[in-house]
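Priority: medium. Attachment 1 of 2:
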């Protein structure tokens, strides 16, 4: 499949039936897999042979879907997880331990910010947060001798900052560490960060990849390009023996293309068990079959809605990198030439109170804690998803306290606009 274009990979990637096999990806709803001899099974446990034995570690349905995403991102190996939170946790924890340090863009998803700044900090991993559009020198200055990775989001949720992927990757590589990027909002249809130098790509598949708000899920894709051996002193987990698997060295045994994901499955999935269900992977696959059709529609609708809001007298500001004059317009043109995503943010004249009034008068746009599915939805982060953050923390993360986040769906755009227009009339 890797020779095909992304649209073909969306529809047919990951699973290629041979003669007489089901045309549609089968749901292997089984926790366990049977072997003729204990010796055969033992080889799997020793990582001496590949195969399935217990769905906590791996499941064929999930692996087919991971393969599709891997091809779409242009990676070397991939895994699915039970959530985007698990994906970002595993992606970082796979290469950072107590005593280590990670540099992250401050403009990231609220859940990830909490994971990094509270929970992983309790595990002894320190984070330095930088402005998403910091200069190369500012990013460089945040790196310490014990820094193990740089982290950012292609399009930040909900700040909608577009990150300079090449610059972040360059500074990471200068310092012998990988650049991990959460590509949830752009999806591989609109941006393939590995082509711009990113080393590891993560996803909350809950969003556009699923596309219908049916299943929470996550994924990690490895580019296979980061040379762990060249920086062996920084990454002993990949370059020295793992005693829990009879002393295998991941980077040696599985090569640069397979080491990172194999270690992540063999150690973190084994011990934390954030496994996706085969049924959810099946639904995710159905969603991904139309990803390349949905994304252009989300983008076209969002562009029209952004232009409508931008021209409306009761709207104070609109942020969407597709709008000329937006702070991220140029970066968007470079990294997201075919469109960014369906999510935009805006504030209304009259601040927080007017925003609440506006929300009450919407009929088609639904108030939900979700973005990036087929249905248009809206949220006021400061009073919901980000409520545990102070105003200063919100602003540091690029979230104005009066900001509303609108996720434009794939309905007829005239209906979305007239719903917004009516609600604006009410304030
Ligand atoms: C939603 C989201 C997450 C968290 O994913 P879940 O699937 O909700 O656990 C992480 N990163 C980004 C950019 C997101 O939008």
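Attachment 2 of 2:
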């Amino acid at each position: 499949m890797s020779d095909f274009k992304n649209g073909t990979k969306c529809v047919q990637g990951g699973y290629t039936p041979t003669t007489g096999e089901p045309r549609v990806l089968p749901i292997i709803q089984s926790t366990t897999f049977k072997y003729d001899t204990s010796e055969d099974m033992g080889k799997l446990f020793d990582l001496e042979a590949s195969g399935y034995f217990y769905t906590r570690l791996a499941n064929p349905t999930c692996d087919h879907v991971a393969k599709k995403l891997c091809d779409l991102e242009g990676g070397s190996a991939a895994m699915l997880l039970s959530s985007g939170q698990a994906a970002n946790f595993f992606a970082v924890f796979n290469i950072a331990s107590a005593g280590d340090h990670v540099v992250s863009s401050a403009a990231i998803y609220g859940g990830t910010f909490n994971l990094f700044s509270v929970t992983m900090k309790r595990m002894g991993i320190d984070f330095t947060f930088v402005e998403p559009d910091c200069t190369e020198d500012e990013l460089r200055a945040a790196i310490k001798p014990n820094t193990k990775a740089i982290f950012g989001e292609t399009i930040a949720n909900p700040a909608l900052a577009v990150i300079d992927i090449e610059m972040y990757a360059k500074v990471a590589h200068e310092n012998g560490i990988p650049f991990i990027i959460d590509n949830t909002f752009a999806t591989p249809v609109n941006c393939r960060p590995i082509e711009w130098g990113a080393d590891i790509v993560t996803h909350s598949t809950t969003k556009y990849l699923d596309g219908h708000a049916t299943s929470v899920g996550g994924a990690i894709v490895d580019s296979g390009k980061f040379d762990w051996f060249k920086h062996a002193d920084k990454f002993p987990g990949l370059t020295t023996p793992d005693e829990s698997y009879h002393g295998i060295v991941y980077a040696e045994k599985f090569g640069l293309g397979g080491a990172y994901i194999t270690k992540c499955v063999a150690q973190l999935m084994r011990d934390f068990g954030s496994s996706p269900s085969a049924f959810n992977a099946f639904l995710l696959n159905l969603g991904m079959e139309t990803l390349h059709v949905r994304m252009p529609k989300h983008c076209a609708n969002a562009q029209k809605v952004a232009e409508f809001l931008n021209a409306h007298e009761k709207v104070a500001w609109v942020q969407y990198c597709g709008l000329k004059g937006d702070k991220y317009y140029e970066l968007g043109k470079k990294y997201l030439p075919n469109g960014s995503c369906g999510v935009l943010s805006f504030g209304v004249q009259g601040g927080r109170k007017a925003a609440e009034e506006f929300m009450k008068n919407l009929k088609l746009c639904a108030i939900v804690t979700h973005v990036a599915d087929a249905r248009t939805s809206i949220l006021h982060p400061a009073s919901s998803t980000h409520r545990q953050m102070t105003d200063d923390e919100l602003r540091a993360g690029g979230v104005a306290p009066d900001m509303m986040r609108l996720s434009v769906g794939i309905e007829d755009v005239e209906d979305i606009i007239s719903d917004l227009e009516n609600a604006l009339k009410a304030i």
